[in-house]
Hints:
Layout: E1 13-15, E2 20-32, H1 71-83, E3 91-92, E4 95-98, E5 108-111, E6 121-126, E7 132-144, E8 148-150, E9 159-161, E10 168-174, H2 181-198, E11 210-219, H3 223-230, E12 240-245, H4 248-267, E13 275-280, E14 285-291, E15 301-302, E16 309-310, H5 313-321, H6 327-338, H7 342-348, H8 352-362, H9 367-384, H10 396-407, H11 413-426, H12 430-436, H13 445-458, H14 460-468, H15 473-483, H16 490-502
Parallel strand pairs: 12-13
Antiparallel strand pairs: 1-2, 2-10, 2-11, 3-16, 4-5, 4-15, 6-7, 7-10, 8-9, 11-12, 13-14
Helix pairs in contact: 2-4, 6-7, 7-9, 8-9, 8-10, 10-11, 13-15, 13-16, 15-16
Amino acid sequence: xxxxxxxxxxxxxxxxxxxxxxxxxxxxxxxxxxxxxxxxxxxxxxxxxxxxxxxxxxxxxxxxxxxxxxxxxxxxxxxxxxxxxxxxxxxxxxxxxxxxxxxxxxxxxxxxxxxxxxxxxxxxxxxxxxxxxxxxxxxxxxxxxxxxxxxxxxxxxxxxxxxxxxxxxxxxxxxxxxxxxxxxxxxxxxxxxxxxxxxxxxxxxxxxxxxxxxxxxxxxxxxxxxxxxxxxxxxxxxxxxxxxxxxxxxxxxxxxxxxxxxxxxxxxxxxxxxxxxxxxxxxxxxxxxxxxxxxxxxxxxxxxxxxxxxxxxxxxxxxxxxxxxxxxxxxxxxxxxxxxxxxxxxxxxxxxxxxxxxxxxxxxxxxxxxxxxxxxxxxxxxxxxxxxxxxxxxxxxxxxxxxxxxxxxxxxxxxxxxxxxxxxxxxxxxxxxxxxxxxxxxxxxxxxxxxxxxxxxxxxxxxxxxxxxxxxxxxxxxxxxxxxxxxxxxxxxxxxxxxxxxx
Length: 503
């Protein structure tokens, strides 16, 4: 069990003309399951295929076609639930959600309203300032994705691409526990991180594989605490849903804009209508899309083509036993085993590949030194060139080799940076490069002393100044390093300079 202590972040407060207002946010995150085929057909889920090329007869709603459930998608939903410390329902069922839209060939969506596969869970959302909030997850249900309507290819016609139709989505529904735009983005980031660790969703927001509907309302200070005591939603304001958000930055902007819109209406004596809205980042506004539907508007009923889904506890236990180490556990282990700071551990565990790279580099070495090189030198260089860790030209073994040379005093920190540049651009074995190019650090105190004596003899005035003001001794250190081509051991140089000038 993780020992996690943290302070709660303060809710976002927006000053209105008459009152201060607090934000209340709940989120419905749609995560595309990482699977090669769709939820009820064998059609491919590959992104970027030719329009309407990944469509089986059942996806296109051809007469007489019946859905057949994809067991792997069920497994991925269970894995996600277990990763969120949620209850797994051994009995769940699919319903039909009826609505008509050009990119929904069946005229309904197969979803799970009444009996979802995953029950209540939680997500610990850290804000990076020592505060964190435990956001409750109400449920995770599975459903089909719809297709895509395209309106900008022809001035007179719209087009429909059904490639996404039938792709398996997990809808992760939170309680209204999020209290500000930054928290909302951090919640999405944490969900994304957990699912990437689990391998259940790739989290690619650009491709639409992870998107969120954001429910925003405002209330007066003190009202949220009354809601917490009673779980009575009447203490909270009327919520509006901002649909299909797939950018962390835009999610934060949209929440702020929508909250200010609601405050202005309420303070002017108006009433908030519960509705679905869209965010326009170009205009910096939300606009009405449709009135918010309730369950009865969709005429939900059990899907007659699908039997209830029954799974065995032993199957769930087997999945649980094979879960990978999750981000919070890995971060805690990195802090304990490698002596890392909370910040460094957070950076290194942010992505699965980055954590694996660091651990391979750090094993058997100084963890703090390894973290410094991975974060500052490698990550810094990769970010500058817009490369992912998977594209790194420096392997963990190569970076580990550089760290070994530093730890053995074979090279100095300055030489190490030059060596890193060579390995990054040319490749090669660090130890061999140091040997062949004469980059080894000068540790022979005799050679260092000779260079220092020559500099002292040539600069008597500077010597006198340094004796009066010891801070000026650094000038001599710099001159020795320059004279030795940066190869002198800095610790040895500093020691000799202190001895020579100290008297």
